[in-house]
Amino acid sequence: MGIESIIIQQFKILFYNKFEIYLVGQRGCVYLIVLTNFFDKMNFLYGIDEGKSIRQNRLESLYITKGINIEPTFHQAFDLTKQDATPPHFRGRGWWAHHMNWYAVGLLRKSFSDLMDKDDCGRPFLILDKHVRIYFKKLNNKYMPDNIVTKHVRDMNTMSLKFDDDTITVLYAGFRVNKNWDEILGCNLVEMQSLNEPCWISDLTELGEKMISDDKVEVRPITPPVVIPDEITVTGKLRKTQKPQKKAE
Question: Between β-strands 166-167 and 169-177, what pairing exists: parallel, antiparallel or unpaired?
Answer without folding.
Answer: unpaired
